[in-house]
Structures are given as C-alpha cells and as structure tokens.
Design goal:
alpha/beta; Rossmann fold; 4-stranded parallel sheet; 5 helices; 49% helix; globular
C-alpha cells in the first residue's frame, strides 16, 4: 500500500483529508500535518516522524503549494527518504484519485497520473 502525508497551511491538511474520506472511506496510511506555529526545522522533523510512522513502502507527500515551508519540508524529506514523491498544488481531485488508485497502479505510474489529475481538475466552468 502506498502511504501519504498531506502537509499544508493551518487546518487545510485535515480538511482535505476529511473531505477525501467522505468520498473514499479507506484512508488507512494517510496522515494530515499542519505547519501551524511550526518553524521549518521542526516541520521537517514532524514530517520525518510522520513518514516513519507509516508502513514500509512508497509514500506521497502532498503539499499545499510550491515555495511554502510545507513544500520545502517535502523536498528535505525526499532527500533522506528515496521512496518518497512530493507533489505540490494538491487539490481534492488528486487525493480522491490517490485513494482509489494507490492499490492498483504501480508507484511510477501513480505519480504522473496524480499530477495530470490535479491539472485537469482545474477548469473554467461555463453556463
């Protein structure tokens, strides 16, 4: 099973996880991690601990947006955890697709699939 950490600003990670769970109840091995009142060094430590708490295997770190302390912590985690992929710009569509497909797709196929899902889910809606 591929695990995941959702890391972001304030309550966003928890809210995204709860929203995804309402669509796909199986969120075993998925954690939410906030940067609230947490300097970057401590955030990196918390992320390392969260990754270590997951079962052995591949892990996706979903970050809120490029350039934030959360994304930077994800990059640091990738340096010390080779089986980690870090995705920024996380949206609900990515998380739902992750939960549906993490048992079905090989990790090398899952990551680009999630990136494309995130991109294609952002659209202008016309009447």
């Amino acid at each position: 099973m591929v695990g995941a950490i959702i890391i972001g600003q304030g309550d966003l990670p928890r809210a995204l996880l709860e929203a995804a769970r309402s669509i796909v109840p199986d969120t075993e091995g998925v954690r939410a991690l906030s940067n609230l009142e947490c300097p970057i060094g401590e955030l990196c430590g918390r992320l390392d601990e969260a990754i270590a708490s997951l079962p052995e295997g591949d892990v996706v770190v979903f970050t809120d947006m490029l350039g934030t302390s959360c994304a930077n912590a994800g990059v640091e985690a990738k340096r010390s955890h080779p089986r980690v992929a870090v995705l920024s710009g996380t949206n609900l569509a990515m998380l739902v697709r992750f939960l549906y497909h993490r048992h079905k797709k090989p990790f090398a196929e899952l990551i680009p699939f999630l990136v494309e899902t995130g991109r294609s889910s952002v659209q202008t809606l016309e009447l």
